[in-house]
């Protein structure tokens, strides 16, 4: 009796091209949510210590929670649409640039610690953009990223 099982041809767990993208989207989503909560909970505290007024930190915190929800939804798709993943990469890259502009212009009178805080945030966002870009490239041109 032949007991050959038929299985789908998939890369071994941990080696699928989508694993890097899906994992980076999830980590990005959770870290964005955590940072959004910190921005909301510490809005009064940030004014004195970092120079970031509550009128900035509260809207940013709310926007970050929305962004985190979107990242979670995208990462949860059975097939990650490449256009949405590309939109995340572009959004992160633009966020990085905006944060650097905020840090090095006089739009908000940040303290030295505030400038360092925003620059570190920009670097973290840049790393997410790069890792998600690599994950997107590994998934193939124009195709949805499969689980």
UniProtKB/TrEMBL annotation:
Parts of the chain that traverse the membrane: 30-50, 56-77, 84-104, 110-129
Keywords: Membrane, Transmembrane, Transmembrane helix
Presence of keyword Transmembrane: yes
Annotated protein name in UniProt: Uncharacterized protein
Source organism of the structure: Streptomyces abyssalis
């Amino acid at each position: 009796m032949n007991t050959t099982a038929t299985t789908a041809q998939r890369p071994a767990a941990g080696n699928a091209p989508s694993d890097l993208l899906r994992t980076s989207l999830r980590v990005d989503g959770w870290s964005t949510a955590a940072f959004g909560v910190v921005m909301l909970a510490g809005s009064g505290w940030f004014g004195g210590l970092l120079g970031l007024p509550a009128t900035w930190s509260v809207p940013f915190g709310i926007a970050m929670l929305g962004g985190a929800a979107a990242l979670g939804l995208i990462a949860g798709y059975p097939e990650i649409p490449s256009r949405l993943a590309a939109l995340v990469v572009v959004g992160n890259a633009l966020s990085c640039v905006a944060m650097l502009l905020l840090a090095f212009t006089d739009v908000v009178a940040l303290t030295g610690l505030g400038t360092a805080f925003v620059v570190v945030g920009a670097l973290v966002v840049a790393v997410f953009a790069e890792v998600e870009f690599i994950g997107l490239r590994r998934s193939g041109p124009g195709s949805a990223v499969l689980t």
